[in-house]
Design a protein that fits this description.
Elements: H1 2-15, H2 34-37, H3 41-47, H4 52-57, E1 64-67, H5 73-85, E2 94-99, H6 101-112, H7 121-148, H8 157-165, H9 175-186, H10 200-205, H11 210-225, E3 229-234, H12 244-263, E4 267-274, H13 278-281, H14 286-291, E5 293-295, H15 300-315, H16 326-336, E6 340-342, E7 348-350, H17 351-357, H18 363-380, H19 388-393, H20 396-404, H21 414-422, E8 428-430, H22 431-439, H23 442-445, H24 450-459, E9 463-472, E10 485-491, H25 493-496, E11 507-510, E12 526-530
Parallel strand pairs: 1-4, 1-5, 2-3, 3-4, 10-12
Antiparallel strand pairs: 6-7, 8-11, 9-10, 9-11
Length: 543
């Protein structure tokens, strides 16, 4: 921990914002991680903003909810779980929420250590799929036994017998406990036949005992008469981009999720996955995955309501579980903060839009900025708007690292690669310059191809493409300026929710969030503005 802290401070000092290490910003307006927010579900729901994506998420047609880290995937899972358990959602009678991060890692390790590595990709995925099915089935059996065994001892006899056999009846157990029971069979899957014509399912079925099969039949009969079961799967965030075993495990999980309802109509699954991962899973069944995937989209107004409710509650000392009228909160926000702030270029700009333009437009980033803003306002007792930049710059390096973290398993030094490529560079550049800068860190890349590295930087949302240039003359337009100003509108991957394409003629822009952290050279007469292409997001009429 001491070493990490030294490196953390070194990063800040190198980027010129060392003063930020002196403050630990408290979660005044709320926690950035949903699991802490939902420790108190009543209070969490009182702050919750129902965006359109949530209505799509709870629909039976949605299997996968996709979004960037910090976009609210976990919060949606917690809210649905709370509504089912409290009887507000009667579509399901039972719900289990699973964190699969460690399970995915351990299943991958077990497969690498087994004879499964002698099989081809399709066979490995089939084996992983069977492991997922059996693991989830055992968890459902246990939940049904705990809930129904007292009232229906005869109807749960086979389940009770099987779980007794596995030593699982008398204790609570987790996903990893089930894995430990199943892991032994993975080392005994056998070896492929000489011609490669082998059925892994045949090997697996040898280890599915008669008692398991009987328990499975009983489980399905119970579900027919005792309601629907929902499995919520969270934390599918770390993966090896080109690593066969892990990719097979993830594809098997997605296959299990999209096929679950067909195999057992009374069991549904909803999987939260980072949007960066979806393109790697499309080889399984692209049409099916696309049809059952909902992308989280936060509009400008959604984010403003998200912050306004929290700010209104804090300043007016309203109890944490009291509901607040959204329009009242937004009106209060507009009075509390001035409508416009001065940009670093020295011209007025809508305050909340300015904050959004310096993040990847996710609730976690916005919350971090406003926690810092509110904290610094109390600490320094300065005019609110003079603290805008300080709040935006707070923890910028952590936010940049967070945007790249999904690719850490691709390359352990992904942030260092990004830093070496762009530190002290220009904020707008051509394809040829991009290639030159990436080449300058070739000694760090290892086996990572230069084009792939560029693709990761673009898909992280930190590098975008310029699509339109506006010239503002003094005194004209909504933005009152006293000198000629250029507005470069850019599009970033996080706005379109799919991979952003580029070619030899592309003009690139760095996201404003990285400027201070990387000491990027900025033209004070130019502003890069992420184009607000999504419905509900404010558009600035430049002309």
């Amino acid at each position: 921990a001491m070493g990490e802290d030294v490196q953390y401070k070194h990063d800040y000092q190198f980027s010129g914002v060392a003063e930020m290490t002196q403050d630990s910003i408290p979660s005044i307006l709320g926690h950035s991680e949903a699991k802490y927010e939902w420790d108190d579900p009543v209070a969490a729901e009182a702050n919750y903003i129902n965006i359109d994506s949530y209505a799509q998420f709870i629909s039976p047609d949605c299997t996968i909810i996709a979004g960037r880290i910090g976009s609210g995937k976990t919060s949606m899972l917690y809210k649905l779980k709370y509504h089912i358990e409290s009887g507000k959602n009667r579509d399901y009678s039972h719900v289990i929420m699973l964190d699969t991060k460690e399970y995915i890692a351990k299943l991958g390790i077990a497969l690498r250590m087994s004879d499964a590595t002698k099989f081809n990709y399709t066979e490995i995925e089939s084996l992983a799929l069977q492991e997922w099915r059996k693991t989830i089935n055992i968890l459902i059996m246990k939940a049904l036994l705990d809930k129904l065994s007292d009232r229906y001892p005869h109807e749960t006899l086979a389940i009770n017998s099987y779980l007794q056999e596995q030593g699982l009846v008398s204790k609570k157990f987790s996903l990893l406990d089930v894995f430990e029971i199943l892991a032994n069979s993975l080392g005994k899957v056998g070896t492929p036949l000489a011609d490669g014509a082998v059925s892994l399912v045949g090997h697996i079925e040898k280890y599915m005992t008669v008692s398991y099969s009987e328990a499975l039949v009983e489980m399905r009969e119970l579900l027919k008469t005792h309601g629907n079961f929902l499995i919520l799967i969270d934390s599918v965030e770390r993966y090896e981009y080109n690593e066969t075993i892990t990719l097979a495990v993830l594809n098997a999980l997605v296959s299990f999720c999209v096929d679950c309802g067909h195999n057992c109509p009374n069991i549904s699954v909803k999987l939260a996955a980072p949007s960066e991962l979806i393109p790697q899973l499309l080889s399984t069944n692209p049409e099916k995955i696309a049809n059952e995937t909902v992308y989280i989209r936060w509009s400008h107004d959604d984010l403003k309501k998200f912050i306004s409710v929290r700010l209104y509650r804090q300043i007016n000392n309203i109890s944490k579980d009291s509901s607040i009228d959204l329009q009242t909160a937004v009106d209060f926000f507009d009075l509390y903060y001035e409508e416009e702030c001065m940009t670093r270029c020295g011209f007025p700009f809508p305050t909340f839009s300015y904050c959004i333009s310096h993040t990847l437009k996710e609730p976690r980033h916005i919350l971090a900025i406003f926690n810092a803003w509110y904290y610094y306002e109390k600490k320094y007792a300065k005019p609110r708007m003079s603290l805008v930049d300080k709040a935006i710059d707070y923890d910028a390096i952590t936010r940049v690292k967070g945007a790249l973290s999904i690719y850490n398993s691709v390359h352990p030094k992904m942030y260092e690669l990004f830093f070496r490529t762009f530190a002290n560079r220009k904020y707008c550049f051509k394809e040829s310059e991009f290639d030159e800068w990436v080449a300058s860190c070739s000694n760090l890349r290892g086996g990572l191809d230069a084009y792939d590295l560029k693709k990761f930087f673009v898909s992280s949302g930190l590098v975008g493409t310029m699509i339109e240039l506006h010239y503002l003359k003094p005194g004209g337009g909504r933005l009152r300026v006293d000198r000629p100003i250029r507005i470069k509108e850019a599009i970033f991957e996080y706005q379109i929710k799919e991979q952003l394409s580029f070619n030899d003629n592309t003009q690139f822009c760095l996201h404003p969030m990285v400027y201070k952290a990387l000491n990027v050279q900025v033209d004070r007469n130019t502003l890069v503005y992420p184009k607000p292409i999504e419905l509900g997001m404010e558009f600035i009429p430049w002309d």
